[in-house]
């Protein structure tokens, strides 16, 4: 008797691929039209899927937006991880790589900024997004504190330094994406490096 063939792998992967296509479509719609334009119909049309799939996989547009926020944050975190890994083993190089990666693609991208602004606009309107925002930024600062610790920054100073560096990076990133003619990515990196030099002895 012949063995029963197992289902093709692509069938098992299909739901994940469809969910990802909706998440990526949601990010594009948010970047283009903001939260006001992020309807089930618009997102489904962007993904080339039926509106019913949004409800099937996410229960509604609010959950899809939250999943998209988590996905985009994960992409940013992966880009930061890649930069740190490429910097090697020197603690200061790794810290600088983490901080300055925001001034180069794929993070320094006007489309990413537009999507992020849409998420930020929901922070005051939706408690779940506000909580997600707090968790994601806490995670960023925790990673930054660990890198500062590796560079010998005293533990009692790490939290405030991490807050300051985060604010500096956010401000430079915003301006670099909004008005790239005002200063260059290299200038942004130099400003960040100079600030880090005031923290690390």
Care to describe what's here?
The protein is elongated. Helix 1 crosses helix 4 and helix 8 runs antiparallel to helix 9. It has a single domain, classed as Tetracycline Repressor, domain 2, CATH 1.10.357.10. The N terminus is likely disordered. By secondary structure, the chain is mainly alpha-helical.
Number of domains: 1
For the record, the CATH architecture stands as Orthogonal Bundle
**Average pLDDT for all residues:** 92
Q: Characterize the quaternary organization of these chains.
A: single chain
| Beta-strand percentage range | under 5%
Judging from the principal axes of the Cα atoms, what is the shape?
elongated
Which fold name fills CATH's third level, the topology? Tetracycline Repressor, domain 2
Please write the string of helix (H) and strand (E) elements: HHHHHHHHH
What is the class in the CATH system? Mainly Alpha
Sequence stretches where pLDDT stays below 50 over 5 or more residues: 1-13
């Amino acid at each position: 008797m012949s063995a029963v063939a197992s289902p093709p792998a692509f069938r098992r992967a299909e739901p994940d691929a469809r969910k990802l296509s909706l998440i990526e479509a949601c990010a594009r719609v948010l970047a283009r039209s903001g939260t006001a334009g992020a309807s089930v119909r618009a997102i489904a049309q962007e993904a080339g899927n039926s509106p019913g799939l949004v409800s099937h996989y996410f229960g509604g547009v609010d959950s899809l937006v939250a999943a998209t926020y988590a996905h985009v944050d994960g992409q940013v975190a992966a880009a930061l991880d890649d930069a740190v890994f490429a910097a090697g083993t020197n603690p200061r190089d790794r810290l600088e790589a983490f901080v300055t990666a925001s001034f180069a693609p794929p993070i320094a991208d006007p489309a990413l900024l537009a999507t992020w602004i849409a998420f930020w606009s929901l922070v005051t309107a939706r408690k779940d997004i506000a909580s997600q925002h707090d968790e994601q930024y806490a995670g960023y600062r925790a990673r930054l504190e660990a890198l500062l610790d590796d560079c010998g920054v005293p533990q009692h100073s790490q939290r405030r330094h991490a807050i300051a560096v985060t604010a500096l990076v956010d401000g430079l990133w915003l301006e670099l994406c909004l008005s790239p003619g005002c200063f260059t990515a290299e200038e942004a990196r130099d400003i960040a490096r100079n600030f880090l030099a005031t923290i690390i002895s």
